[in-house]
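Give me the 3D structure for Ankyrin repeat-containing protein, putative.
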Amino acid sequence: MLLHVLTQFSIIHVSKTCLDKLFELIESAYNSGFSKLDYISWVIDGIIVKMSHHQLLAEHFGPGSDHAANGESSSETADYLLSLLGRILSMLDDVEVRRIVLFKLDVYWAYFPIHHVSRYGLPDACRLLLDHMPLVSKSQFLEPALEGRFDGITPLTLAAAHGHTDVCVALVERFRKIWDTAQKGFWVTSIWNGEDVIKGIYAGFWQVLPLHGPFKHYRGAYGETVLYAAVSSGDWSAVSYLLKSKIDVNVPENSRGWTPLIVTSVKGHESILKLLIEAGAKGEHRDRLGWRALEHAVSNGHIEISEILSRRVHGQESGEIHATFISGIQ
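Predicted structure for Ankyrin repeat-containing protein, putative (330 residues):
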């Protein structure tokens, strides 16, 4: 209990002298056969949380601020915390011990450490954890850590939702490594992507995805494709990138039957609408209510988009849009 309290205060205040001594004690006890894996898991979580707090402070207080002047450099502290994480991970020299420690759920979020570094945007810590996570049994690594077996939330979706492209890169690099060694059909099959993630889409995220296999044809929890998610976010560069990869432009999601063209018409992204039309998007598709993209555009007051769609679907002039809308909903 005393060791627990001392470590907690030392991590909170980044007391190097205390932490160095405590880690020497932990290493000595561990090497002597005194293994408190719950305690080690708690220390790892504490270091990650402190790293996230330190990163937030560094982002809000520049190098010339009073906050920075009162302490040592931000990079030195970040490097020290990362070295602590590496130091304690290096103790876990047994595959089973790594599995127990790194796949242990925290009591509040029910996340693994890899989820937390993805959520907080800590790419170096992410790579360090991935390097130490056991890869002997792919089911142990893939199912709980990447497929979101517990609540559908994965490190990848957490990183995407919070805009941490650098963490996405680290995760995808590891996915590719597993892809090269995994058996055919044994891959990430349920990277969940709900509405909250769609709203938080980050343009650079799509640029790091390997557009082959499950990523190119990925369908989210409601059947939405990666193109649908990118279109919904309103990010022109992401949509353009995906369309160049010859991704299917007319796949509807399951809940409302909306295609990328329909969701663009709802949100009013004219430049993206033009991209979709050039790529072969079909304006005649109707959703579960019987509405096409044209009806949605008119209903949401997007006149320019309505005119583009009406000319494409019926060859009508702008004065006939209202009549088209009325006939479409009857």
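The chain has three domains: 1-91, 94-187, 193-330. Let me know if you want a second pass.
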